[in-house]
Amino acid sequence: MGVEIERKFLLAGDGWRALVERSDRIAQGYLIGAAAVAAGHAKSSVRVRISGEQASLNIKSAVLGIQRDEFEYPIPLADAEHLLHALSDGVLEKVRHHVHYQGAHFEIDEFAGDNAGLIVAELELDAADAAYPRPDWLGVEVSAPRYYNVNLIDRPFARWTAEEKAGREDTAC
């Protein structure tokens, strides 16, 4: 069984940009998304993602917190394009920047469209209580459901209040 342990952070500066090793354009959508989970109709979210010429299907348990069951499988690009455009709840677009800092791999997502202006650093850990570096560009932790990609389709960053955008109000969407 796959398990994801992930923390998310807003950024406190642009110092990370000089450390970017590569960047990938990503388009993703959900076949079973936030609305079905919130209504109690689903125990998981099901995502299709296209990153460059690679495509995948991802299933995550619908539990709150930094640790969730996760399974990911490669699928043909043509299948992903069809699923994304014909069957998903909407498309989320972002550029994912890869930054290594003191042995940690930060994935920094810079969102586009209705989520433009939102930049979130993600850090996957081996354990929920694992230590990790805190570079000066890493801001407040926002590992709350509001920042889950599945929720950014139903309630994009453009519709958030100023408090929500600052990470001061992290209640569920």
TrEMBL record:
InterPro entries: CYTH-like_dom_sf, CYTH_domain, NeuTTM/CthTTM-like
CDD domains: CYTH-like_CthTTM-like_1
UniProt name for this protein: CYTH domain-containing protein
SUPFAM superfamilies: CYTH-like phosphatases
The organism of origin for this protein: Luteibacter flocculans
One Pfam family matching this protein: CYTH
PANTHER family, per the entry: SLR0698 PROTEIN
Domain CYTH: 2-154
Superkingdom of this protein's organism: Bacteria
